Amino acid sequence: MPPHGHPTARPDTAGTLRGILAPESRPDPYPLYREILAAEPVWVARDRPVVVFASYEACRAVLRDPRASNDRRHALIHRAPEAPGAGRPAEDATAADPAVPLEIPSFLFTDPPRHTALRRIAAPGFTPRAVRRLTPMIKDLIDDLLDAVAPDRKDGVADLASPLPVTVICRVLGVDTGDPDWYRTRSSLLGRAVDPYLAFLGVPPPDPAGRRRAEDELGAFFRRLAAERRAEPRDDMMSRLLATQAGEDPLTDEEAVTTCRLLLNAGHETTVGLIANGLRTLPRHPETLAALREDPATTAPAVVEELLRHDAPLQIVHRHARQDMEVRGTRIPRGTTMVLLLAGANRDESAFACPHRFDAERAEASRHLSFGLGTHYCLGAPLGRLEAELAFTRFAQRVVDPRPVDGPTRYRPHVVLRGPASLPLRTGGVLGRDTPWDRPPGSPTAGTDTVSGGAAPGPRCGRRSRRSC
Ligand code: HEM
Fold it and tell me: Is domain 11-453 in CATH 1.10.760.10, yes or no?
């Protein structure tokens, strides 16, 4: 019996797990997720208490289970013999990844009751109602970005998907947006910290030094901002955080800094992925672009849900057993890390018919797990959805006849944060910003010609229609 009382990985699944981390898998990790789903539960190694789930029901069950913690101090792998930082006390467990800061974790990596108190402070800024008030600002930003597209070199990521979310979240937080690239490059470096290298291989993700630098620079930036807002409060998130008491305990300056940094990172990397995935997919589905122009109010939300399901911007989350537990018949000893392949669960045939097919009319798309579930359900879901709905609507309205450039799509190196690194596009031009957002029925729109001569809609898929995929 292995030391942790669990079966060891079979050689074939060990190769699959390494494959998930491999750069060659970035364009299409889905066959690997399917292999894990077929072999679930997959234990990673004899001396590493890590189990991987990819089925819809198992991922759901873990996300909803209060014994499954998001606090790394409950994870034995952060204290495993081969992990850097081994032998440190449990309180210092985040030191296991040299790139993970020693300072306090954000509320994403905290359990209730502290999680509840901290989340409650940030929540009012991200309710559907609060977010709807941002619509005019986001629409303006999208139009500014489309106005600035160079006629001879169009790239969906550089022109729209990448700059939009960082600018929006900086404005929401009240952070100077003079140089969005400064935040973007640092939070992109930090994004690799959540890639499951420690879980799968027992080593930290690549470039720990780069992440440490990014962490220090962002930390210093937000600490300066906290000092400024403490001296002179404004009507922004940092001032509100500093002025708030979190339950019985006051919020420390360091917690305000960590919360702001979480909102900045979580608030844009994933949304970049969602918009970029959409700008890659939509030109391959002219019928969906036409529907977006015809009826954006109905089509845009449906497109966003199906994109989230079909190609989750955040592919994987971790949980750690704070006590012995069971997941769908599998005994999970205390201290085990559970790796949940959310993107795989979204393509589980037992939950979604013809799951590998993108179908903007899929009735059950919104059952996806791409925003998580339970205690840590994405706080920014309404904002992410709104940005993507407006971006896709405007793309359909203003960009004439968009076509992908031949050749494979280049993806970012990240494993968890998924999205194309660049998306060269051919188009028939970009219409002016006077193009109405709300089109009167019957008026001509961008791409009308293309749509009438374009590809016929593919076979319908999903439970609403009975045609097979
Ligand atoms: C469309 C894009 C987005 C996707 C796919 C996404 C996905 C997720 C997922 C899967 C989680 C749960 C993580 C876990 O359970 O471990 C999460 C949590 C979170 N997200 Fe998002 N997110 C998106 C956009 C945003 C935006 C725009 C914000 C803006 C503030 C945001 C803020 C957060 C926060 C603060 C958490 C932590 C919640 C908690 O721990 O209670 N996200 N997100």
Answer: no
